[in-house]
Automatic annotation (TrEMBL):
Entries under InterPro entries matching the protein: Aminotrans_3 (IPR005814), Aminotrans_3_PPA_site (IPR049704), PyrdxlP-dep_Trfase (IPR015424), PyrdxlP-dep_Trfase_major (IPR015421), PyrdxlP-dep_Trfase_small (IPR015422)
Phylogenetic placement of the source organism: Bacteria, Pseudomonadati, Pseudomonadota, Alphaproteobacteria, Rhodobacterales
Listed PANTHER family: AMINOTRANSFERASE (PTHR43094), AMINOTRANSFERASE CLASS-III (PTHR43094:SF1)
Keyword set, alphabetical order: Aminotransferase, Pyridoxal phosphate, Transferase
Protein name (Swiss-Prot/TrEMBL): Aspartate aminotransferase family protein
PROSITE patterns reported for this sequence: AA_TRANSFER_CLASS_3 (PS00600)
Family membership noted in the UniProt record: Belongs to the class-III pyridoxal-phosphate-dependent aminotransferase family.
Organism: Sulfitobacter alexandrii
Domain of life: Bacteria
Cofactors that this protein relies on: pyridoxal 5'-phosphate
GO molecular function: pyridoxal phosphate binding; transaminase activity
Gene3D superfamilies (UniProt xref): Aspartate Aminotransferase, domain 1 (3.90.1150.10), Type I PLP-dependent aspartate aminotransferase-like (Major domain) (3.40.640.10)
Length: 456
């Protein structure tokens, strides 16, 4: 494919012509992105043949691991049979069968599947669905979305509007009148001496107070990730989701569970909302693990209850939302094959079995003084570094994350640095021995960073 183009030239073309996601604009043509050439199982190989464990599993998505020939064969077959047909006027077996399969796997009455191109467009669709429903119900003011600080919901205008990560917005506009944010839910950041139970009460009260302040008649939806992943794998306190869900029900506010990361196995279940957190949302958004990253696909899954409230006597109203690549047959085949592989190889069961070992190796990193917090659930983990001086600058916090990233990479482990944190979500097929390999490397890397921070 690269026709023997020398690596230096490729690097130059990449710098000069490719604008990458979240590029640092002060030096966008100076950044070197790591060229990756191939992959197998949980490993990646770079252009120089060096092997890495893929700690973040791509971007939290490569559930079944890399290099699956059966996946490649299924995709190739569909490409030859029918690579594309318009979702406006036609349908295909793969999209129909996948919609039925997702409806079967999703909780409660979440039976209606709208296919999107990824997570952002699934969130966009969920929010537009809320607008549509409230317009249909004659409540045009009930549109404000309550979202949360540190929540990440994507990069379209609407999805970025409800994203609560301030620094991601810098110079982009958002639709401020549409959204209100609740403060941090991370139990690690609770005041000294406060119990987790009291913290949970406070966080539920944040929502209650916000609904009161804005007026329930103006609040259309609450959007929440079961675990705030890009925000640093923040696991809300026990009972939080149930209680916030109840509040939404009480005030007729749609509960949108953004399961773009947590669905399709990350916590050992197809969906986490009901199986792990005991709630049946009105809408679930998913993407990533749906195809294990082999091809792009997302879905917005809407409950029967919401659908019923969107349909009325007005014959002329269209659900005018959709993408050229909605329900793309090749992507739907990839999702079906991915689900089949997960079922046949009992990958959810494997994830549940391996989780205690993964989480206990994670917690064992507490012995390093530069580690402030260790948290996670399922095959999701985060190390939050603790700079030794309180009130340390952002630059110092970033340095900790960057040093850890470098020390891991040197040893053949990729992690995802987020300021002073490193997050990981390896392919779900990771074995016990590979979990050990990963954490052994992390321990060595932490030892090196501890020494470097001490010598500063
Ligand atoms: N929602 C959540 C919870 C995510 O983590 C992400 C991406 O990381 C998105 C939405 C956006 O998905 P995409 O990047 O596929 O548009």
């Amino acid at each position: 494919m690269t026709n023997g183009t020398p690596p230096d030239l490729l690097n130059e073309w990449d710098r000069n012509h490719q604008l990458h996601p979240w590029a640092a604009m002060d030096a966008w043509q100076e950044s070197d992105y790591h060229p990756i050439e191939s992959a197998e199982g949980i490993y990646l190989w770079d252009a120089e043949g060096k092997r890495y464990i893929d700690g973040p599993g791509g971007m939290w998505c490569v559930q079944i691991g890399y290099g699956r020939k059966d996946m490649a064969a299924a995709i190739a077959e569909q490409v030859m049979r029918l690579p594309y047909t318009s979702p406006w006027t036609t349908t295909t077996d793969p999209s129909t069968i996948l919609a039925k399969k997702i409806a079967d796997l999703a909780p409660g009455d979440l039976n209606n599947v709208f296919f999107t191109t990824g997570g952002s467009t699934a969130v966009d669709t969920a929010l537009r669905t809320m607008h549509f429903m409230n317009n249909a119900l004659g409540r045009p003011d009930k549109k404000i979305v309550i979202a949360r600080e540190k929540g990440y919901h994507g990069s379209t205008y609407l999805a970025s509007t409800v994203t609560g990560k301030e620094r991601d917005k810098s110079r982009f506009d958002i639709e401020k009148r549409l959204v209100r944010f609740l403060p941090d839910v991370n139990p690690y950041n609770r005041p000294d001496g406060m119990s987790v139970e009291d913290w949970c009460d406070a966080k539920v009260a944040d929502l209650e107070n916000m609904i009161e302040e804005v007026g329930a008649e103006n609040v259309g939806a609450f959007i929440a990730e079961p675990i705030l992943c890009s925000g640093g794998v923040i696991v809300p306190p026990e009972g939080y989701h149930k209680r916030t869900h109840e509040l939404c029900r009480k005030h007729d506010i749609l509960y949108i569970s953004d399961e773009v990361v947590t669905a399709f196995g990350r916590l050992g279940h197809w969906f986490a909302s009901e199986d792990v957190f005991g709630i049946t949302p009105d809408i679930i958004t998913c993407a990533k693990g749906l195809t294990s990253g082999y091809l792009p696909l997302g879905a917005c899954i809407i409950s029967d209850r919401v659908m019923e409230r969107m349909t009325g006597p007005d014959e002329n109203v269209l659900f005018s939302n959709g993408y050229t690549y909605s329900a793309h047959p090749v992507c739907c085949v990839a999702a079906l094959k991915n689900i089949e592989i997960m079922e046949e190889e009992r990958i959810l069961e494997h994830t549940r079995e391996i989780t205690p070992h993964f989480q206990s190796r994670l917690r064992a990193l507490a012995k390093f003084p530069i580690v402030g917090d260790l948290r996670g659930m399922g095959l999701l983990g985060c190390i939050e570094g603790r700079p030794d001086t309180p009130g340390t600058s952002l630059a110092a916090e970033r340095k900790l994350g960057a040093l850890l990233d470098e020390a891991c990479e040197k040893r053949g482990l990729l992690v995802r640095p987020l300021i002073n944190m490193a997050v990981f979500s390896p392919p779900l097929v990771i074995t016990r021995a590979q979990v050990d390999e990963m954490f052994d490397l992390l321990e060595e890397a932490l030892e090196e960073v501890t020494a470097e921070m001490a010598s500063d």
